[in-house]
Amino acid sequence: MKKIVVSKNEAGQKLLKLLAKYLNAAPQSFLHKMLRKKNITLNGKKADGSELLRETDEVCLFLSEETITSFQGKNAENTTAVEQKKTTNKPKELSDIRVMYEDEDVLILNKPAGVLSQKAVPEDYSLNEWVIDYLLDQGKLSKEALQTFRPGVCNRLDRNTSGLITAGKSLAGLQTLSELFKERTVHKDYLCIVQGAVKNASRLQGYLEKDARTNKVTVEAKKRSEESSYIETEYTPVTANGKYTLLRVRLITGKTHQIRAHLASVGHPLLGDAKYGMPAENRQLRDRFGLKYQLLHAAYLEFPETLSACEELFGRKLSAPVPQLFLRIAKELGVYDRCLTEEGQ
Question: Of 42, 62, 65, 218, whose CB neighbour count within 10 A is largest?
Answer without folding.
Answer: 42
